[in-house]
Amino acid sequence: MKIKLLRLLILCVLGIISANTLAQDEYKAEIGVSGGGSYYLGDANSQLFKNMQLAVGGFFRYKFDPRFALKVEIISTKVVAAQNTVNNSLYSTDFCGEFNFFDLEENQYKQFSKKFSPYIFTGVGIMTDMYDGQKFPGFLSLPFGVGIKVKLASRWNFNAQWTNRLLLFSDNMENNPIYNNTNNLNGTNVLNNDLLSTLTVGLSFDFWEKSCNCLNNNFSK
Question: Which CATH architecture has domain 26-208?
Fold first, then answer.
């Protein structure tokens, strides 16, 4: 009797594990938070990772399939450059398409199914207060970068990413005599735009359950 109960218990546990495994890709979207550091690279700073500042934010990701997704991310940070030429708090909002190199799901029957995947992304963004006197909504950026995603559990995910935002507007620093002589700024042109970069990690939760993709075959007699 005890052996039968033990077998039944084992079958139940295996059934639960199997159900959780199958449920891991049954959600269309995820919402999460992120945090890390940011740095500015441009006329007033030419050194990578210099003057790192705290960056925090949140994101929403819509998954078209295990490879492709669309993400909206909002980041709040501060930009500090050499000799206080830039010292502003700002918000950045990015709209990016993402591509996973593996099918990000736990499915033992798919050849390229993985619980982790490196990914790349690019899109468009808007930014406020990068420079003195510049306000929303006129300042576009081109975000792009790389990252890695990991499925921690059936509905929990982890990601780490490096984002670079090419600022598609002139900083106008060279028109200010305070900057020109003391900081040796090198000019603004189409090939010399500044970058705002962030190194962040994020934790997200899956929601918006998918509708069943089952085939209901009715056979007539």
Answer: Beta Barrel (2.40)
